Structure formats: structure tokens, C-alpha cells
Amino acid sequence: MDQDDAVKVMEGVAHVVGALTGGQRQELVGLVGEMAVAETDPDRRVFLEGFPEGFGLIDGDC
User: Fold this and answer.
1) Among 8, 11, 39, 50, which residue's Cβ finds the most Cβ atoms within 10 Å?
2) pLDDT, tens digit (0-9, with 9 covering 90-100), for 13-61
3) Are 14 and 55 a contacting pair, CB within 8 Å?
4) Can you give the pTM of this predicted structure?
5) Residue 10 and residue 8: Cα distance in Å, rounded?
6) 20 Cβ neighbours under 8 A, 6+ residues apart
7) What are the angstrom distances between the C-alpha of 24 and each of 1, 21, 43?
8) pLDDT of 5 over the 50 cut
9) Quick one: pLDDT at residue 10?
């Protein structure tokens, strides 16, 4: 994927995530956590594990 396109996609995801309600954020964190546990690809698992903090769904101090 072109790097500029990848940045645009990530910015779009961050925008959508930023508009979620608190309950929606909690639900998404739970779903992403379930996906991480089930993921067999180590690189994808690392990405999924870091997603909630990286996209501001949880505080990094938690």
C-alpha cells in the first residue's frame, strides 16, 4: 500500500474512533482484545494489542 494512502486510512480510523461514545469505546476495546487473543500472526497480534492505546481508546497509564 502506498504510504500516503496508509496515512489517510489511519487518520480516518482515528477520526471515527475519536467520535465514539464511552460505551462504544469500551465495546471496541473488548472486541479488539478478543481479536488479539485469537490472532495467530505475531505482527498482527502486536498491532491489535497496541491499538486501544495507540488510538486513544484507553489512557496509557492504565
Assistant:
1) 39
2) 888 888 999 999 999 999 999 999 999 999 999 999 998 998 888 875 5
3) yes
4) 0.76
5) 5
6) 28
7) 29, 5, 26
8) yes
9) 85
Place of cell 496508509: 6
Which triple of cell numbers denotes residue 60? 496509557
What single letter denotes the amino acid at residue 52? P
Grid coordinates representing 50 are 497496541
52 near 29, Cβ under 8 Å? yes
The alpha helices in 1-62, defined as continuous H runs, are 3-18, 22-38, 42-54
Residue 52 class from Cβ within 10 Å (0-12 exposed, 13-18 middle, 19+ buried)?
Answer: buried
- Asked whether the predicted pLDDT for residue 62 surpasses 90, the reply is no
